[in-house]
Every structure is written in structure tokens, then in C-alpha cells.
Specification:
single chain; 212 residues; 3-stranded antiparallel β-sheet; ATPase_Vma12; Vacuolar ATPase assembly integral membrane protein VPH2; membrane; transmembrane helix
């Protein structure tokens, strides 16, 4: 957004209007003169109410120069005390996140220890390779489907470019979600199978103890 910088004709017109005006209009004009610019909406209002039959708009805007508003930056209007409170809250949140991370790691290690499934470096390397391969396959699937949709909408359907882009984005997200759901389902089934296998082993151990 932008405002109009006060040139000589505008300053003179505002000065004359200020002499005749009363509060709160006088204070409003003082603010405009101190700022050095006037919003376009305010200028149109003043011209319609006070200058329409006296000063042409062309004369008021000659020469014309725009005053662009600065882009708002989050936190620029915060007080030092509020910024300090935000920094304190941020540090507390970081500490809480760190403690939760340590707690989750301890739980994970405890579960692995209880299940007797401590991974060797070779097993960890294998799992990492499998995850990288899965991510690559998902990426290839998404790209292939998006390319096919883009090609079909351009050669057969002859859709406008913006429709083609929207359709490609929607289809790509849909395929990505589907691939992730299928992969998570696969991991869930594997975990369930491991859990069932562990229960079978435990039952066998108990039976042996009873026989003895």
C-alpha cells in the first residue's frame, strides 16, 4: 500500500483548512502535516468535502510522489519487556523439548533392551538403506504421476496452464499421501508380526518350565 507525499499545494491547502477547522479535524491535519504524507482515502474525502469547488485534484497532485508503507515485520512493535518474556518462554520451550527428546530416547532404548533387539551396525545400515530406497521410490512415483497428468492435460484435454498446475499439485499430494499410508501400513504389519513372534517364543519358554 502507498500514501501521497505532501507537496507544496497539498501543504498549503491543509494549512488553510487547519486555520478554519476545529478539533478533532485540526489535530488530524496536524498529524498529516507532521507525517509528511496523506492516505489516498483521506485525500479523496477532504477534496470531496472541502476543496471540490475550489481546488482541482490535478492541482493538488502536481507534482505527485508516493509514500510506500514499510513492510510489517513481526515483533517490530513489541516492547522490550514483552520481547524479554518471549525469549524466556522460548528458552523454557527449548528446554522442555530437549527433556522430552531425552525421555523418548530412553523409552526407545528401554523397549529395544526389553525386546532383546539391539541392532548391530550392519542391521542399522540395512534399515537406513531401506528407508532411503523407499523415499526414492515414493519420489519417483509422485514425479511419474505428475508428469503423466501434465502431459495428458496438455496434449489430450488441452486445459489452461493454471488448471493443469492445480491438477498436478492435487494429484501429486494425493499420490504422496497414498504412498506414505501404504508404507506405514507395511511397517505396522511388520511390527505386529514381530510382536506375535515374540509372544510365541515366550509361551514356549513357559511351557518348558512347566514340563520340567
Amino acid at each position: 500500500m502507498f500514501d501521497i507525499k505532501l507537496n507544496v499545494p497539498l501543504k498549503e491547502a491543509l494549512g488553510e483548512l487547519k486555520e478554519k477547522a476545529k478539533d478533532p479535524l485540526r489535530k488530524e491535519i496536524d498529524t498529516l502535516l507532521n507525517n509528511g504524507y496523506i492516505p489516498m482515502k483521506t485525500l479523496l474525502k477532504y477534496h470531496s468535502e472541502y476543496w471540490k469547488n475550489q481546488i482541482p485534484m490535478r492541482q493538488l497532485l502536481n507534482p505527485i510522489e508516493f509514500q510506500f508503507k514499510e513492510k510489517y515485520q513481526p515483533g517490530s512493535t513489541y516492547s522490550p519487556e514483552f520481547k524479554k518474556q518471549l525469549e524466556t518462554l522460548k528458552l523454557k520451550q527449548e528446554e522442555l523439548d530437549y527433556q522430552n527428546m531425552i525421555k523418548n530416547e530412553r523409552k526407545t532404548l528401554q523397549i529395544i533392551k526389553e525386546e532383546g533387539e539391539t541392532l548391530t551396525p550392519a542391521q542399522m545400515n540395512k534399515q537406513i538403506k531401506e528407508q532411503v530406497t523407499t523415499i526414492f521410490n515414493i519420489f519417483v512415483s509422485v514425479i511419474s504421476v505428475v508428469f503423466a497428468i501434465w502431459y495428458w492435460t496438455g496434449t489430450s484435454a488441452h486445459m489452461p496452464v493454471h488448471y493443469r498446475l492445480l491438477l498436478c499439485i492435487f494429484t501429486g499430494i494425493l499420490v504422496l499421501v497414498a504412498e506414505v499410508v501404504v508404507y506405514n501400513s507395511y511397517l505396522t504389519k511388520i511390527d505386529l508380526a514381530k510382536s506375535q513372534e515374540k509372544k510365541k517364543k515366550e509361551q514356549k519358554k513357559v511351557l518348558k518350565k512347566i514340563v520340567l
